[in-house]
Structures are given as C-alpha cells and as structure tokens.
Amino acid sequence: MTDSTALDPEDRKIVTLARAARARNGVPEGAAVRDDNGRTYVAGTVALPSLGLSALRTAVAMAVASGAGALEAAAVVGEALSLPDEDLAAVRDLGGAATPVFVAGVDGAVRSTVTAG
C-alpha cells in the first residue's frame, strides 16, 4: 500500500476527485485523469443496457473528447485490487506506457501504483 499523503499534491488531487465521483454518483468505481496541460477529467462507471464502460475508460474518453493531447497520470477508486488490461490500454493510448495509474480503495488509500505499459 502507498501512503496517499506521500503522493505529489497533484496526484493526491486526482485520487480525491476519483473518490468523490464514486461517492457522488453511487457507482462501483470513480476515476480521474490529468492531461499534459494540468486539466483533470473525472468520471464514474457507465452501466447502461446499451453501453458499459469502466470509470477509467470513461475518464480517458472525456479527455480525448475535450482535446487532450496526452495524459500525465490517472487514478481509480473502487473495490478492485487490479485493473483490467482494457483500462490500462486506454491510458497507454493517450499517455504512453510509463503513465502512472494509482489504484485506491474506497477510503482513498492508494493500494498500488502501476504503469499503463
């Protein structure tokens, strides 16, 4: 487990935003990504009969749709201990293989930091 207070303030911010999105929307996961200009994009799990997206893929899609050129970091808050390959691939597509992804529990404590690669 990574001490969340040891994170860079901007990284701690995206973990906090992801946690808030999860709680506010009552969804299994919340996610936030930060682009190369410092803008953040926050999303929750999408579970419609015709469309299902994880919170992280939704946040990446929001960044792309808003014109983000690259990602600096991503965070996911939920029950899962690891992320599906598809989630990491979405981050990698926009941010590159070295982009850090913080995986946090519902309490906001970062369990692990992985790279998109």
Explain what this protein looks like in three dimensions.
The protein is of the alpha+beta class and 117 residues long. 33% of the residues lie in helices and 28% in strands. It has 3 helices and 7 strands, in the order αββββαβαββ. The strands form 2 sheets. Strands 2-1-5-6-7 form a 5-stranded mixed beta sheet. The chain has a two-stranded antiparallel ribbon with strand order 3-4. A hairpin with a 4-residue loop joins β3 and β4. The model has no long low-confidence stretch (mean pLDDT 95).
Structural descriptors:
alpha+beta; 117 residues; two-stranded antiparallel sheet
Helical content band: 25-40%
Major sheet, described briefly? Answer: 5 strands, mixed
List segments where confidence is low: pLDDT < 50 over at least 5 consecutive residues: none
Rg over C-alpha atoms, rounded to the nearest angstrom: 13 Å
CA(first)-CA(last) distance? 20 Å
The number of distinct β-strands equals 7
Number of helices: 3
Structural class by helix and strand composition: alpha+beta
Element string (H = helix, E = strand): HEEEEHEHEE
- Beta-sheet strand percentage? 25-35%
The strand order across the widest sheet is: 2-1-5-6-7
Average pLDDT number: 95
Shape: globular
